[in-house]
Amino acid sequence: MLSPLNLLDLASCAAQTAAGYIRSASPPSDPADWTTKGAADFVTQVDRTAERLISDLLLAETPESSIVGEELSPGLAAEGLVWIVDPLDGTTNFLHGIPHFAISIALEHFGKVVAGLVYQPINDEMYWAEKGRGAWLN
Questions:
Q1: Residue 79's pLDDT is what?
Q2: How far is CA 1 from the centre of its chain?
Q3: What is the DSSP letter of 101?
Q4: What residues contact 49, with CB distance under 8 A and at least 6 apart?
Q5: What 8-state DSSP symbol labels residue 99?
Q6: Could you tell me the pTM of the whole model?
Q7: Pairwise CA distance, residues 111 & 45, whole Å
Q8: pLDDT per position as a tens digit, 34-48
Q9: Residue closest to 121 by CA, chosen among 35, 29, 53
Q10: Distance, CA of 40 to CA of 49 (rounded, Å)
């Protein structure tokens, strides 16, 4: 298994890959293209594609891991190394052109969250933390 720092680097790469896609994507202008999960809780193809990009990259580098993703696999839980992914946290803002949304990725190891990051693609700000070691910006 990779070290926690290597795993955070991998998560950072996945977040930046999805961010490139999100920055280039146009929000669907027709509300008929917005799927709802609940009141004012929207999902678009941009959310799903971003999650797929993140998942593909993480699983390619850590095939022993599993993904719990908000859009594609929200009910799955697993033992061992688990990536918890929200590919577009703030979809409503994204849909309305408000530049305050993020990509969130956490890493769970045998039931304990050990690291995570939040990346704001518009500001190019990455907040990340590792259990017992602290938290950082960029």
A1: 80
A2: 21
A3: -
A4: 21, 25
A5: S
A6: 0.87
A7: 30
A8: 565 555 557 888 999
A9: 53
A10: 20
